Amino acid sequence: MTKKQLGRNAAGAGTIRKKVVHRDGKDYTFWEARITTGYDPGTGRQIQRSFSGHTQKEVREKMQAAAVEINNGTYREPTKMTIKQWLEVWTNTYLGGVKPRTTEIYKSDIRLYINPTLGATRLDTLTPHTIQNFYNSLSKGRNGKPGLSPKSIKNIHGVLHHALKQAVANGILRSNPADVCTLPRTEKKELKPLDEDDITLFLKKIQGHRFENLFITTLFTGMREGEVLGLTWDCVDFDNGILLINKQLQLHQETGMEAYKLVSPKNGKSRTVAAAPFVMARLKQHRTLQMQQQLKLGGAWSNPDGLVFTDELGGHLTKPTVYRAFKAVVASIGRPDARFHDLRHSYAVAAIRSGDDIKTIQSNLGHATAAFTLDVYGHVTSKMKQESAARMEKFIESVSGK
């Protein structure tokens, strides 16, 4: 060991001194402590941190607390980075495995809500109380606009929590201040699927409609809107009656331009659905009509992705176009409240009523677990309750001899 090494302060060692600063014609006295927090691996020079205070006791306590952390290996060098600066690093560096559309949503929540309120706050000074007040403020209306829904606040929390979790993993923060925050309670909206009478009216109303086969496929397979719009012919197995769902059509914002792209399904996993023969027959009919349209238009037809459902020229459909057409239909049958997604709910309830086991329904819907499917569709319709009561009545009659 060299004399220079012997003379170096060990990490955690420090000094305290009294300092006088002359300002505005007056002398101001304060105490300063310096502590060695480590050594620069490149130069070997000491890395020191200073503490200041009005009394010697105050700075000694600060220095001793830091020394304990250094000796325990829990010391974190303070950062001058703001929330806004860290969120920029996080979105640019740590979202490589996140879908582009999800990244866009994260950035939108950061730009619209997190940065305006917390952006200028230093990362290492962020407290649970500050975050809690931020969440509470989001639920209150401002400038004539209503507050955000509990679900929207939960989504914003998810963005901030993930970003702070990465800061902890990187050693920038000791703990995640968003861990202990309380989120507003979310109430599940009552599902309003189409019942049997609604479905009968719906099927009659869409006869001959330009989206008839699209609506039928969605209603009787439970596919999500983006999945049915992104369905391609190479994923339709007519011989075995199987549909492969391995992508969805999704809208993206790119350099101020909107563009639809085919991306992986919602949970990133492909799945297959055994479609009813009625659905497969409709798809076969639809393919014939599409081929006739292609022959009619010749070079004007363009469907490079091989989409099943297209516009008149072979291009992809847009969600607003399909949505407006669907809303017009359901309004005409007395269900103006129905959403396109309710076709998926209608399929699930019909499958449950038909006696399908929950694992099959989970697989067809593309849910991660059967527990989630049960949580969403564990309710029963009034008709199912009546049917249950009728079955119980028959049981009572059989055991009571009446």
Q: What does this entry look like structurally?
A:
By secondary structure, this protein is α+β, with helices and mostly antiparallel strands. The protein folds into three domains: 3-72, no CATH class; 83-169, Tyrosine recombinase, N-terminal domain (DNA polymerase, domain 1, Orthogonal Bundle), CATH 1.10.150; 196-373, hpI Integrase, Chain A. It has 15 helices and eight strands. The protein has helices at 3-7, 56-72, 83-93, 100-118, 128-138, 150-169, 196-205, 212-221, 225-229, 277-297, 319-332, 342-353, 358-365, 370-377, 382-400, and strands spanning 14-23, 26-39, 46-53, 236-237, 242-245, 248-254, 257-263, 271-274. The strands form three sheets. The chain has a three-stranded antiparallel β-sheet, with helices on one face. The chain has a three-stranded antiparallel β-sheet with strand order 4-5-8, with no helix packed on it. β4 (236-237) and β5 form a beta hairpin. α3 (83-93) crosses α6 (150-169). The chain is elongated, with a radius of gyration of 31 Å.
